[in-house]
Amino acid sequence: MRYLPLTPENRADMLATIGVAGIDDLFCDVPEAARLAGPVDLPKHAGEMAVERHMSRLALQNHAAGEGPCFLGAGAYRHHVPASVDYLIQRGEFLTAYTPYQPEIAQGTLQVLFEFQTQVALLTGMEVANASMYDGATSCAEAVMMAARVTRREKALLSGNLHPHYAETTATLCRMTDHPLAITAPRPVGADIEALAAAVDDTVGCVVVQYPDVFGHIADLSPLAEACHAAGALMVVVCTEMVSLGALKPPGAMGADIVVGEGQSIGNALNFGGPYLGLFATRQKLVRQMPGRVCGETVDADGRRGYVLTLSTREQHIRREKATSNICTNSGLCALAFSIHMSLLGEAGLQRLAAWNHATAVQTAERLANVSGVEVLNPAFFNEFAVRLAKPAADVVDALAEQGILAGVPASRLYPGEPDLANVLLVAATETVEPTDIDALAHALTKELAA
Amino acid sequence: MANERYTEDHEWVRISGDIATCGISDYAQEQLGDVVYVELPEIGRIVSAKDEIAVVESVKAASDIYAPVSGEVVAINDAVEEDPETVNRDALGKGWLFKIKLTDAGEADELMDEASYEDFVQGLDE
Amino acid sequence: MSAMNTQGRPTRPDAVVSADSAPATFSGNRALHLEEKLIFEKDSAGRSGVDLPEPPPVANRLGGLARGEAVGLPGLSEPQVVRHYTRLSQKNYAIDAGLFPLGSCTMKHNPRLNERMARLPGFADLHPMQPESTIQGALQVMQQLSHWIMTLTGMPAVALSPGAGAHGELTGMAAIRAALEARGEAGKRRKVLVPDSAHGTNPATAAALGFQVSGIAEDDTGRVDLKAFEASLGDDVAAIMLTNPNTCGVFEYDIRRIADALHEAGGYFYCDGANFNAIVGRVRPGDLGIDAMHLNLHKTFSTPHGGGGPGSGPVVYSEALAPFAPVPRIQKNADGSLSLVEQAAGDAAQAFGRVKGFHGQMGMFVRALTYMLSHGSDGLRQVAEDAVLNANYLKARLKGEFSLPYGDTGPCMHEVLFDDTFLKGTGVSTLDFAKAMIDEGFHPMTMYFPLVVHGAMLIEPTETETKAALDEFADSLLGLAKAAKSGDTDRFTQAPRFSPRRRLDETQAARKPVLRWQAG
After folding, report:
1. Pairing state between β C191-195 and C212-216
2. ipTM score of the complex?
3. In chain A, which residues have their Cβ closer than 8 Å to the Cβ of C364?
4. Is pLDDT of C226 > 80?
5. Where do the structural domains in chain A lie, given as residue ranges?
6. Is residue B31 less than 8 Å (CB to CB) from chain C?
C-alpha cells in the first residue's frame, strides 16, 4: 500500500517496544461484539492507474460545462481561472497546512487571510471581513443569527428574490432556534425593494436582500437601508456573483450593515457546487458579534510586523455554548484562490473582467429578445437576467441539453411551488461565452419554441 | 479602604448609600492575564444576584461576570471599555465595572469581607 | 465570575530577548527567510496579471448603478503575483514538510492523485444546476461515496451536504431535533449531555440549535463517568454528544451501555466522528448503538486541510433518524439513472430542510472516494491499525519522561495525551514546550485541549509516518523534556528563535484589532 510506510518488520519491532503481542491487543477496549474479524465487504486496495481509470470513467459520464455553450448561473458562475491560481494553491505549504494556530510557522496563511479580508472589505465597500465561511448560503444564515444578536430582535425578513437555497438554509436554522421568519413573494419582473421597505417594522431584526438578485435584477438599496435603519433593523445584502462588484456600486456605499456572499466566481472552479467560499463583511463596530475566524495584525517579540488569529473569544473552541457560531473550519484554500485571482486581476483587470461580463450578457439579452417566444424581464442587470419563455423552461432546458447547450437554470428548479415561474429561465453570460455560443443558443431556442 | 465585600466568583462590591459599585478582584485580574475586552450591561437593566451581567475577556478566555447583588444597573464604566487594561492596573479602583442601585440594602452583608476572601483565595491556590 | 482558563496565555513578548547577535541585514531578509510586504504595498502601476482585450461596445444596462469609485486594488503582473505567494508559502509549516502531530486534527499525507482526480473537467467544470442527464457521473460519485461510507460505518443512511465537521454536527443534531418534534417531545427534551472533554464545537452546536448544554465529568481513566451520566438521564434529555475514540485518546469501552441507557431513557446518541480514523475498517459505529455521526473527510479520508479548510462533513444516520435527513438526497430511478431530490416533499417529506447551497463539497467527495478506492477495505483497516500502532509507539517511547494524566492504564487509540505534571517546577509551560518544538523543526502537538487535563499535550502522529520519523521526533521530545527538567529554561521561554516570526503579541492584536490594510 503506497501510502503506508510501515513494514512488517517495523510493526513487529514497535509492538515489542510497546510490549504487546499483536495489534489486536491495542484494540482491546472495543467491546468484543463490535470487533470486525476482517475487512468489510468492499473492494481491496488498488494502484494509481486503476483508480485513475475508475474515476476518469465517472468523469466522462458528465457533460462538462466547457464542452459547449454554457449559460448557467443562479449562484455559481463559470469564469476563466488563470493557470497560476491553481499552481499556487497546490503548493504543499498552502495545501497541506492546518489552521494557523501556531502563528510563528503559519505567517504565509495568515498574511494571505489578512490580504483576503482587505480585498473582501474593499470589494463590498465594508469596513471589515472575516477569513471566510463554508459558502454563501451558510454565510447568509449566520448573518441572520448575528443580526438577531445585535438588535435583540429574532425576526428576519427575507426577499423573495433571494436565492432559494440561501432562504432554505436560513429557514432551517431559524426554525431550529425558534426565530420567526417572513419572506416576500418572488418577483421575476423586477427587484422587490419597495415591498421589503414597506414590510420592515420595529419587530424585524434584519432584512435580507440579494444584489444582483436571483433573477439578475439590480436596484439602488439606499431607500431600503433608510427604511431598515429607521425601524432599528439591519440591512443584510447577499451577493452571489462577486465579479459584479467590479462594475456595480458596492453594498457598503448603500447602507449595508452586513454583506455576505459567495466567492466562488473569483478564483474557484464550478466543482458541481462545492467547495465554495462564504464571504462575510460588516462594520467595525459589529465585529465582536461576527462569526468565524478573523486574522489581525500585530508585532512579534523582535518588533517585526506579523499576523495572528484574533478575537477568538467569540469562537467555539473558547466560548463553547456561548460562541457566536459553532463554525470551526473556514474555506481557507478557496479563499486563497480568490485572493490570488484578485491579485492577478488588480484594479484594471477586475474592471475589465466585469465590463466583459456585462457586455456579453447585454449581447445575449439583445439577441434573445429578438427570438419569438422569449421575453427578457430585466430592465437592468449585470451578467445574468431572466426571460419568460412560451413554454415551460425545464422542458426547454432538457431539450437543449440534448443538443449540448446548457441554456440556463429553470426558475422552477429553485421555486417548484410557484407555477407562475414555470416558464421563467435564468440566463447568465460570463466572459467565457463566445459569440458563436450566443448564436447557438438563439438558434436552438428559436427552433424549440417554434416546435 | 477595605469596605469591599467579595463573592466566591471573585467580584467585589463597595456600598455607598443604596449604590453598589462592582468590579473583579485583584486575584481575578491576575488569573485572567491581560484583559483585552470588557462587555458591560445596559443602564437600566434590572438584575438579580448571580445573573450574568458582563464579560471580561483575555486573549484565550472569556469570563462571565455575575451580579454580586440585586437591583438596577445605574452606571457603567465607559473608561474600561475604551482601555481594558485599566482592569489589570487598578481592579479595585479605576477598573470598576458597573454600579447597581440596591433592591435590598442588606444583601451585601452576606458576602465575604476582605479577610475571609483572602482565606478563600488561599484555599484555591493550594 | 465563571471559571477562568489561565492556560495557554501567550508570554509577553517584552520578556523575550533577541534571538541572536548576528548583525541585521540591510534588506531585512535572512537568507531563505524572505520578508514579504503586503500585496497592497507593492510596486503597482496599473498593471494586470490577466490579459483581456477591450470588451465589445454595448449600451450599458447597469441601471445607473455603475461603480463610481475605484475598488482600491493594486495592479501587478503575473511574475510579481507568483513570487508574492511563493514567498508567503515558504513561511508555512505543512505536512509535506514534516511531522504534524496535532492531536484530534489528523494531519496525514494528502495523496496527489486525489488532487488530479478532482481537477478532471468532468468534475471540476460541472455546474451544480446542470440538467440531470448531464451529471450522471457526478451523481454516481456521490452514490459510490455513500455506499463506502455506509458500509464502513454500518449505518443505513447518509447526508453528504454538510460543509465541515461542525456543520455535520449541526446536521446530525438537527435531525435529532426534527425526530423529537415528530414525537411531540421537542419542547420537553431540551437538554443535551456533553462530556467536559468534548470539542468546543459540540456545546456550540447544541446551543446553536436551541438546546441546553449539560456537562458530564470524566472518570479516572479519561472516559465518561457512567454514574454521572446515568444520574443525568431523564425525560428532559434529547441526546448525548460523545466523541469516540474520545479526546483523551481512548476508546469508550462502555459505549454500548451508554447507548442502551440513553435509548431506554428516550434520548438519541450523537457521536462526534472526528476520530473515526482510529477505528475505520475495524469497528462499525452502527454496531455501537449510534444514531447519528459525522465524518470529517478532511481527517479520516485525507482531503487536504488547506490552511483551515474547506472541509466536508457527511453525516450517517440510524433507521430512526434516516427519514429526517436533509435534502438534497440521491435517488435511484427505475431505469437505473440517478436523480437529485432537492425538495422536502414526497419520500423526503420528513426531511428537516437544507443546510447548504447546492449539493455539498463535491470536490472533496471526489478526493475522498479516490482515497477510499486506493486503500480498499484492507488498506483502510491497515490505516486504523498503523495509526493506533504509531500513537502507542510514541507513548511507549515518551512515557518515561512525560506524564500521563490518567496513568498507564491501557493502550491509547490514534493519539496519546500527556499533561504538564512532568514540567512542574521547571518554569516551563506547555506553551513554552510547544514553541521549543518549533525550533526543533516540528509542528507542535495540540496543546491545552482537552480542557479537562491541565496543560494538555495531545499527540497524533497518523499512519503515514515512518518508524524512523517517529524515532527522530521522540528523541527530540525526550531531549526537550530532559532539558526542561535540568533547568535549561531559556531554551523554552525564548522559543521559537528560528521561525519566520517569533512569539506574536496576541494581546495587542485583540485590544486594538487591525483586521485589514488601510491606504496611507
Report:
1. parallel
2. 0.97
3. 274-275
4. yes
5. 8-60, 65-80+346-450, 83-341
6. yes
